[in-house]
Design a protein that fits this description.
The chain is mostly helical and about 110 residues long. The protein is about 75% helix and about 10% strand.
């Protein structure tokens, strides 16, 4: 079981880096009160720290989901309709909340 956690952690970190490079912009746009627009390119250090921070959060989220699936197997949950529907609703709402949090952090 530890091999599964290790593999999921490493693969999700690599996928997080790739998603971070694709999603996180390397420039910042500032709107001035007089109507001007400034575009500032981030330094390599700050950009790479943002990407690594995003990759670590993706990796930790994947490890938490893997751990929860190890503790509560889906086969046992599928046998109880109330618990199954509650788990589906919880996962959908948690996913939406995390999506809005990440989107707010990336595009603000």
């Amino acid at each position: 079981m530890m091999a599964v956690y290790k593999r999921n952690g490493i693969y999700s970190f690599v996928v997080g880096i790739l998603l971070g490079i694709w999603l996180i912009p390397d420039t910042s746009v500032f709107l001035h009160p007089n109507g001007g627009v400034s575009e500032i390119e981030l330094s390599l250090r700050s950009y790479s720290l943002k990407v690594i921070r995003f990759a670590i959060s993706v990796s930790m989220l994947t490890l938490i989901i893997t751990l929860l699936l190890g503790i509560f197997p889906l086969r046992e949950i599928a046998q109880k309709p109330f618990v199954r529907d509650f788990a589906k609703g919880f996962i959908v709402v948690l996913g939406l909340i995390l999506l809005f949090m990440v989107g707010n952090q990336l595009f603000s």
